Amino acid sequence: MNKLLKKYNSMGIAARAGIWFVFCNLMTKGISTITVPIFTRLLTTEEYGTYSIYLSWLNIFTIITSLNLYYGAYNNALNKYRDKETRDKYIASMQGITTSMVVILALIYICNTHFWNEVIGLSTPIMCMMLVELFVAPATLFWSGRQRFEYHYQKMVGITLLKSFLNPVLGLFFVLGWDSHHELSRIFGIVITEVCISGTFLVYQFYKGKTFFDKDYWKYALSFNIPLIPHYLSGTILNQGDRIMIQKMSGKGQVAIYSIAYNVGMLIQIFTNAINNAITPWMYERLNEKDYSAIRKNITYILAGLALIICCLMFFAPEIVLLFGSQKYVDAVYVVPPVAASVFFIFLFNIFAIPQMYFEDKRFMPVASMLAAILNIVLNFIFIRIYGYYAAGYTTLVCYVCYSVGHYYFSRRVCSKKLPGIQLFDTKSIMFIAALLIGCSIGFNFLYGFKVLRYAMGGFIILGMYVKKNMILGVLRDLKKKR
Questions:
Q1: At CA 368, angle to CA 74 and CA 247, rounded to 5?
Q2: 3-state secondary structure of 43
Q3: Cβ contact 241:373 at 8 Å
Q4: What is the spatial distance between Cα 414 and Cα 432, in angstroms, rounded to a whole number?
Q5: What whole-number distance in Å separates Cα of residue 375 and Cα of residue 378?
Q6: Separation of alpha carbons 275 and 111, rounded Å
Q7: Has residue 475 got a pLDDT over 60?
Q8: pLDDT at 152 over 90
Q9: Model confidence pLDDT, tens digit, residues 283-332
Q10: Maximum CA extent, the chain
Q11: Can you spell out the DSSP letters for 387-443?
């Protein structure tokens, strides 16, 4: 412990902040994941389905009303406007945009509440709570973005822990306190948390900035972010559109079952997000040093290791589903394999996107996103009607495969111009690993009836990973190496 503390204290402010920001991310996702089994047992499948639909529409409307102004141009603006007073004014003016967008959305909704309730599939009280959350929530994201940029990690950790704690605790308090409409109770807990924390930041940042509209700030932010909205919106539709279409075609009960399968399948993203945080700067360094062979070799090893971890999740999917959702969600197990395999292709398209970002040629990224989102809607419309929510898992997998293939194609186009004659990725090995994983995602559905065989095969894979631990650790050490 003394050695670790000494090493930690010797780090620069940026390195220490990076560690704590990763910790905040893990805490947020970890607490959210841990509390899922509690609420799936307290809510009926219909109620949990309504809650899942609320989150899906919230994510879509968040992009429309916030324009993701806390991404994209935000760090550029903080870098451009360096003095404290100017930053205060900029943040306040960004809140001016988001609050204006929410007011416009609220007016559109109020003009015909019955129509929009039918289209969205949520009641008026839930829609009002969503509008309140959309109004206040961006304030915390603006504040958090500034803390990360200025390396004020102590405040960030405190607020993250407070919010991560209050959200489930208040949700549990209201669910246990009300005899019916538990979905309203759960959502009310989220909204109260946002009002208390984000509402405070909203008022504070308006007070500090004393600005609502600034022509130059609005023009700068909107001109940067509006062209990226199709990319952001397409990605959200790809993630959340399944639940909305299942609700329309099969009902909220099936939305709940699919949501549990999706949550279980996406558990691997906790690891892939951590790997992404390490691999992006590592690839930038290798590209700077023209060490292309290291990229080709280590990316292949990482993808093979990720495929093995995903297979382990597939092996133990029945047990994980029972833990997360109890016996009433047991059918969700058959959706876990394709959703888990999708994580591989999500990670893969992020890898293929790195050369595009490195060489500052991002014009093709929205094209791949939009095509994948459109394909997802078309496939869901055809196959959910026939096979129910089971089809959504495989349409998600197909779309993410196409998404990664699109990014691979555009990445190769960029590399052929910037790195002529260089093969940055081992295409044949990647195709073999991907094909094997897709085969497993189909084959596992026939294996779940044979528990002993499944455990034996799962143990064999874990043993294989242990035998190859030195190679795996070597790759991880290479990613952490600083040159």
A1: 90
A2: coil
A3: yes
A4: 24
A5: 5
A6: 47
A7: no
A8: no
A9: 777 787 787 788 888 888 888 888 888 888 888 888 888 888 778 888 88
A10: 67
A11: HTHHHHHHHHHHHHHHHHHHHHHHHHHHHHHHSTT---S-HHHHHHHHHHHHHHHHH
Q: Are 405 and 275 in contact (CB under 8 A)?
A: no
Phi first, then psi, for residue 150 (nearest 5°) are: -95, 5
CA distance 141 to 251: 33
- Full-prediction pTM beyond 0.90? no
**Residue 192 CB-half CA count within 13 A:** 16
φ/ψ of 334, rounded to 5, equals -80, -5
DSSP state letter for 316: T
- The per-residue pLDDT for range 74-128, each reduced to its tens digit, is 777 777 777 888 889 999 999 999 999 999 999 999 999 999 999 998 999 999 9
Say which residues have a Cβ less than 8 Å from residue 84's Cβ, sequence separation at least 6. none
C-alpha–C-alpha distance, residues 44 and 40, integer Å? 7
Q: How many residues does the chain have?
A: 483
Query: What is the Cα–Cα distance from 217 to 88, expressed in whole angstroms?
Result: 12
And the tokens for 3?
């050695």
Buried b (16+ CB within 10 A) or exposed e, 317-340: bbebbeebbeebbebbbbbbbbbb
Is the alpha carbon torsion for 132, 88, 223, 406 positive or negative? negative
Amino acid at 425: F
DSSP assignment, residue 1? Answer: -
Count the Cβ atoms, other than its own, within 10 Å of residue 383.
17
- State the distance between the two ends of the chain, measured CA to CA, in whole angstroms: 27
Spatial contact of 32 and 38, defined as CB atoms under 8 Å apart: no
Which amino acid appears at position 352 of this protein? Answer: F
> Residue holding tokens 């807990």?
189
